[in-house]
Amino acid sequence: MKRRFYTPVLLLAVFASAQEAPQRDWSTQTENVLLDRMATNDHARQIYSNVFSRLRDEGVSADFMIEFSVHPDITTDNSVVRRFNRPAEKLSYDRYSKIFITDSRIEGGVKFYYDNRVLIDTVSHRFGVDPFLLVSLAGVESRYGKNAKTHTVFGALHTVIHDIPRRAKWVEREMAEYLIYCWENDLSPLSLYGSYAGAFGYGQFIPSSFRAYAVDFDNDGVRQPFEWPDVLASMANYLVKNGYAKGNSDFSKGSPNWKSVFRYNPAENYVKVVLELREAIKEAAY
Predict the structure, then answer these.
(1) What is the pTM of this model?
(2) For position 141, which CATH number holds?
(3) Can you spell out the DSSP letters for 61-82?
(4) Is 177 annotated as catalytic?
(5) Which one of the listed residues 141, 172, 174, 177 is annotated catalytic?
(6) Total of domains in the chain
(7) Residue range 68-124, pLDDT digits in tens
């Protein structure tokens, strides 16, 4: 079930008013208008108030948010709450691994590797990261790009703001990072799709990680979340910046390489399945 905040008639009136208004600066009045439109409980108002302070400090236009705030598809989604309350990583490893260690995912990894071998090996050499680890991460995170768009990023984060108070600090940072990213790249906040947790792209980076670690590997001037050159390089860069030992093949528990994968998703089941899939793909590829 999804909650909507405006009737169609009221939306048209508000949208017309926003379009006709002169450029506005951030002010207490502007913030209150935005809070009235976007937050439906006191908890959400506090988080959004902090988000708006960050946007103001980062130079994001108040009009960017005023115009977006009247969008009819600003909603919450109960499926996001259900997924947060029942993360797959909490399953027993036997059940969890059956999601990822399958013939189709192994075969898909081998095909992905050979279809993109020059690129993968180039990224691997440049960053010193094992090529089959990059393939495995792509397989676990988005099934090699086939399963990367289940929720709007904004909708997922907006739901967490309203309905999952225990994630308040995390979601405040991620929503601010996401809206800054959209502003910087002239994107509507509802145009980008990702996971139930607000991660997006083939590498499934949360907004703060994307802004911190994404790489423009093909030098086209844009860090693309859905283009493999940038995605693979961004994953490699993330691992290296989080302790990966370049050129080292030690993936034993507690090693620098193991820890770098754990930083990608802090769940032991996740690390174990990534490394098991890596071994299976590597074996099948040769």
Answers:
(1) 0.89
(2) 1.10.530.10
(3) -HHHHHHHTT-TT--EEHHHHH
(4) no
(5) 141
(6) 2
(7) 999 999 999 999 999 999 999 999 999 999 999 999 999 999 999 999 999 999 999
